[in-house]
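Go through the following before class.
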Amino acid sequence: MAVAEALRELDPTVELLFVGSAAGPEKQIASEADITFRSVPCAPFPKSFAVSEFVGLAKIITGFAIALSILRTFRPDVVVGMGGYTTVPVLIAQRVLRKPLIIHEQNAIPGRANRWLARYATSVCVTFPATVSSFPRDKVVVTGLPIRKRFLHLPTKTEARAALGLEKDRFTVLVVGGSLGARRINELMFAAWPSLNDDATQVLHQLGTNNMDQVEQLKSTGFERFEDSYRVEPFIDMPLAMAAADLLVGRSGASTLAEATAAGLPCILIPYPHAVADEQSANARYLADQGAALVFRESELTPRKLADAIIELRTHNDRLRTMSEASRSLGKPDAAQKVAQIISGLVCAKDKV
């Protein structure tokens, strides 16, 4: 939705259509943004032509037929694929209609669908510079990952902590599990907390609605004794939370990293270990190589190791400051505006032909 917002700022009369999965949250997101929504069947891009892949292939073919009908009716000047299974049939339909298409690759390791579709794309936008070599040089642009406009103008730490009801002078750790595998991070942080609780540290922990049952596990550590220092929420205002924090602990999905670097947050990253191409490890390594993050394999991380890493950064302000500067140097809070400008330029060029 960040790109849609940026497009509307460039041209308030622009017509937008969001095509997504009927099973996901896309319809609600589109409705909240006042964008027309259409759904198509979707499935992972086939790995082979094995019999086991036929069901997924059939969904893509069906999705293509529906997408073709949608595009012939809506007649878009350009289609932008922001990742996910649903983009495949829609982008193939746009290619068949011989109309411009743009793809955006979120992760450091490109997905199979984007690698294949890149040959037909007019432009390829990427989040990480390391991804450039995976796509045609004459098409690829490093834009960063589009994130909420609020990251362009974040409040100060003092302002953000006051808005969230946090103590203004405590070292503040933001814990975010992300959409995948949050439970293990929650367990590690709960067990690490007693070693961190020193009346000078506070934690803001986004647990996720599906994981609120884990609060009972936190209570078993004696949580009631220090609950003023350890805030657990199903959801939090992420721009405010990142502005308030000194350190982020979480997964290394592209969205989390884009927001963390926009806020200049040092990170302790625990890549999701079951990603298809282990793309979260590649994302995390990019930040670590630039000095913005510490990275731990989930299988090797213990509560003691996590506590020690946090204590190390908490007690060495110079190192934390250096990591923060490195993180901020990687941030691209204006990524949505950059992608919108590419789309707008493509439409303007088409109109001049």
Summary: The chain has two domains: 2-147+333-352, 150-330. The chain has a mean pLDDT of 90. DSSP finds 14 helices and twelve strands in the chain.
